[in-house]
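hi! just following up on the protien thing from before. the input was this:
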Amino acid sequence: MPEIEIETVSSDNGTEQAPLRSLSRREPLVVPPETRLREVLYRFSQDEEDAAVIADAASELPLGLVTLRDILHVVSFENAELDDPVANHMVGAPLTLAADAPTHRAKVMMAKRGARHLILTEPDGRLFGLVTQADLLGLKAGGAESLIAGIGGARDLHAMTLAVDRVRRRGAELFRAGMGVESLCQWMSGLNDLITMRIIELIEDEFDLPAVPWCWIVFGSEGRLEQTFVTDQDNGLLFVPPDAESTPALRERFLPFAHAVNEALHHCGFERCRGGIMAGNPDWCLSADEWRRRFSDWLQVPDPEAVLHGAIFFDFRPLYGNSEPVDQLRAWLIRAAPEQTRFFHALAAQSLEVGPPLGWAGQFSFDRHRDYPHTIDLKLQGARFFMDAARLWALKEGVWATNTAERLRAVGHLRRRRPEDIAAEIESFHLIQRFRIEQQLQTQDPDAVNRVDPDDLNELHRLMLKEAFKQARRIQGRLRQEFDL
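and the predicted 3d structure came back as:
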């Protein structure tokens, strides 16, 4: 077996959901559209740049992008003159993203388009900066370039199924070779994003969709960038009707398309959600106003059953389509949520209904599952404690991130917690995730993929797992104290 080279996909201090503006470390080279190619080349040599943004001087709106490679090509092979205005040879409508969008979205977008540069803009459209592949580093690490090419070149579901299998096999190799859990989950989530986007593209060609803004949204582990090797679908669709009266008719037109995408994802190995949280379900194919009302109901009337089933919706992020209305929904949510004290009390109470599986003497305790009597469900009795607390605190503090580790870091910083305490919580969460992944790679039983028998672990791993559960118990203690429960 050939040696596996592992590159860091993302730093373990978390950058996947950091805003892109934090990566733009210097002012980009900006030139007006009338600038001559000769002068642009001179600026490249003087400023040691390989790309320039063409922008309107008065409005600061980006109009295009030109690279050193582009200019050399047109001058050498297309008979361009050095006195030509740069606007004649720029790439119009270049790849652009809001400066406050998360880094992960940029990585996926650049990998999908094969782009080397990405223009960042302020909310009013003005230029903020420019990031490059070197700034982002990541999604193509771990030998993913050929995987990305295979995903982009797939022309049918059979090819997509093969692509999914290759991603999972490569991910297993990286895990066994020692890649960190956070890096691996984000690597897997990034490639799964590309797979889902390509499947949507293939299905979209078969439908005459309404000419209104719409976006495919993901929830749960995919929304949190925490996908492992066994994952089901949690998705929805948001659309923006021209008026409220047209909402039902538009939904009826989107539903067959959304259902077809759900079926295609299932065919490619992403199981249907057992709870029906899929875009092909009319309950989760909603207008922007309906989504806002749905979240508002959860916040203002925190029925325990609704809180239990609705928690994963707060991990949403846009995946495919027009992301702007989804970002607007998130912006509204982080403004509206912090005031809803009853909702947070209900969320905390629901999270505390089950405790970590440790007995009074510090020994493991079990849920007496009929088929797996001496096992612990590491998702429901382990990782969940960290996910629930991180989600609650992020919403309460108005933090945009959806990833559990990113939430714990951001909230810990805002609350001035000791860095070593934050690190201990995150390390415990990732340790539980590592044991989950180990089990998923060892079993074919779908009901046992998150269950581990402590007797199957060596003594060191049993001690490590107990320490992780003790961290979960401390987190629950903080929730209990904060909400007087």
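Residues 33 and 257 are 42 Å apart (CA to CA).
The domain at 344-482 is CATH 1.20.120 (Four Helix Bundle (Hemerythrin (Met), subunit A)).
cheers
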